[in-house]
Design goal:
single chain; mainly beta; Thrombin, subunit H; 2 domains; 8-stranded antiparallel beta sheet; 3 helices; about 10% helix; about 40% strand; disordered N terminus
Length: about 260
């Protein structure tokens, strides 16, 4: 079990899709700046970001180790995505769609889903870029500059928490720390380390994976991906992590071309 640097307490965090995976915080480096930027018009921010937030359903086949490779069960995971182009490019977490045999996307305000396919993914950065088939005239979100984000900045977390019917869930909080490194142990036993993560106390839950962490200017500064859970040695409260938008910008062209 890993531990936060400078602390005797260990902390377990979980991926926040419908099926979830366990992760461990290996390292923490806090930004101690306290200059803050707090949202003054939450309704105005939501009016700008909600059209760009979509629900994602990924279906895969889970093979049973007891009955041979030919027998398995259908597993459905739910998550969130962010529209990045009018033609239907959607960014989400890799762990939302990894191994999926089919992917569907439901646009905000719509009651029907559209098929989507994977353009490119990076398990190392937990990012995946989808293309919604037949989509046009969508409303893309604006990616902000996560490198200008400081501790104390107000943020909104938006996503389809618990896959609840009726639209996305919105919560507010602040940036609690920057520069976190989070090591993730996937179901196959491989370890992935996500670096320079943003930490927030905005409430996020299963289904929020891939959803936006939004600043006071309605810009996406992070992609929500993991949330802390309680362990026998530490009780976690309001500790979530988001992949910085700078990482999305850096990898976007590679994801478009099928890489990561």
């Amino acid at each position: 079990m890993g531990a936060l640097v400078g602390s005797a307490a260990s902390l377990t965090v979980a991926r926040i899709t419908g099926w979830g995976r366990q992760t461990i915080v290996r390292q923490a480096v806090a930004n101690t700046s306290v200059i803050s930027d707090r949202p003054a018009d939450i309704q105005g921010i939501l009016a700008r970001i909600l059209p760009s937030v979509v629900s994602i359903t990924a279906t895969s086949t889970q093979v049973s180790p007891f009955f041979g490779s030919g027998i398995g069960s259908i597993v459905t995971a739910s998550g969130t995505g962010i529209v990045l182009s009018a033609s239907g490019e959607v960014i989400t977490n890799d762990h939302v769609v990894a191994g999926a045999r089919s992917i569907t996307v439901t646009l905000n305000g719509s009651s029907s889903s559209l098929p989507a396919h994977l353009l490119g993914a990076s398990a190392a950065h937990d990012l995946a870029l989808l293309k919604v088939e037949g989509a046009s005239n969508l409303t893309p979100a604006t990616l902000g500059d996560s490198q200008k984000t400081v501790v104390g900045d107000g943020v909104l977390a938006v996503g389809y928490a618990l896959a609840l019917a009726g639209g996305p869930t919105v919560t507010d909080g602040i940036i609690s720390a920057t520069g976190r490194s989070v090591s993730t142990q996937a179901a196959n036993g491989q370890t992935e380390t996500l670096t320079n993560m943003l930490q927030t106390d905005a409430a996020i839950s299963s289904g929020n994976s891939g959803g936006p962490l939004v600043n006071a200017s309605a810009q996406v500064i992070g992609i929500n991906t993991v949330v802390a859970t309680s362990s026998r040695s530490a009780t976690a409260q309001n500790i979530g992590f988001a992949i910085p938008s700078a990482t999305v910008k850096e990898l976007f062209s590679q994801l478009q071309s099928g890489g990561g």
